[in-house]
Amino acid sequence: MSRPDRSTRAMHQALPPALRDAVDDFAEHLSRVRNRSTHTVRAYVTDLVSLLDHAVRMGCVDLADLDLSVLRSWLARQRTTGAARTSLARRAASARAFSAWAHRAGLLAVDVGAALASPRAHRELPGVLRADQAAALVEAPARRATPTTDPPQAHQEHTDPAPTDAAGAPTETAVPLRDRVLLELLYATGVRVSEACGLDVADVDHGRRVIRVLGKGGRERSVPYGVPAQRALDDWLRRGRPALMGAHSGDALLLGARGGRLNPTTARQIVGAYAEAAGLPRTSPHGLRHSAATHLLEGGADLRAVQELLGHSSLASTQIYTHVSVERLRAAYRQAHPRA
Question: Model pTM?
């Protein structure tokens, strides 16, 4: 079973053996058959353990006792304890997925979750930088007089000595070069921060100016990038990466300050720190992804092409960016039109 938090593990151990085995088998199915990420499996397991713990409290001693009334009671209890609509929608989806799997596996005579309704999640429009703000952010590392310092990363990186340049002095340019290529790639390609940090040197096709990205569900796609990102990559690979390379670098494209693969948490902190230093709205790597998608659509890109670039499995996930563009258009109209 994926490693959820301590309280969930305690509830899991307290379940009757048959229910505990069902949780473990479902987690195995998600991981090996559905190829879900560790984070996704952990979320499903957490929801499922909570559901089955509630079922036991209602008198269910076997999976066959699970019915629609138990599922509804569980969601109602979640709502009374303050769960947000988005959380309720996700938990209902977890219950439906488990019920469908259990029915196919012969553990439930009826797919009791098929009739489970859930509140429609309210989808917030993502925050989007203007094109000039995004440009200011990605160019910020080149304007900084002093390099950034990384927060603590994985344990193995602390075992390496501090990197030095050819003259033996601590590197003063490698980290800003790394920050610059990180920001350029996030905005130029719209990739997820985990995808950017997972890139290897061989994933960059300099001739065609595309990167090979391994996305959610193990789906691979090629994403193009522009000339500014190419310049940042050239500088990083020529002058930055060699200065930071260490025993734990491997084939990673982006490195932490102590030589290991750049951690997504560190990457988020880098983006946030540069945005704050530049006086921009609070921004994250996902905010740059939103901005890239919105600017592509505003520039006339086809919605299907943006879907492919972002790695969305459903066009519905991409369509939210059309609403962002409409909101920006409305804001400009209200500000500028005399009869708005």
Answer: 0.66
* 216 flagged as catalytic: yes
- Rounded Cα distance between 244 and 240, Å, is 7
> What CATH number does the domain containing 79 carry?
1.10.150
Tens of pLDDT, residues 302-312: 888 888 888 88
- If asked whether residues 165 and 97 sit together in one domain, one would say no
- For the question of residue 155 being annotated catalytic, the response is no
Concerning whether 274 is annotated as a catalytic residue, the answer is no
Q: Clarify whether 286 is annotated catalytic.
A: yes
pLDDT mean for each 10 residues of the chain (340 residues): 72 91 94 85 93 93 91 92 86 94 94 85 72 93 57 37 40 86 94 94 93 82 91 94 91 92 94 93 92 87 84 78 72 70
How far apart are alpha carbons 64 and 73 in whole angstroms?
Answer: 17
**Domain residue limits at 56:** 6-115
Count of domains for the chain: 2
In a domain, 230, yes or no: yes
228-244 as b/e, with b when 16 or more CB fall inside 10 Å? ebbebbebbbeebbebb
Please tell me which residue in 192, 241, 258, 295 is annotated as part of the active site.
Answer: 192
109 and 135 belong to one structural domain: no
Catalytic (active site) residue 295: no
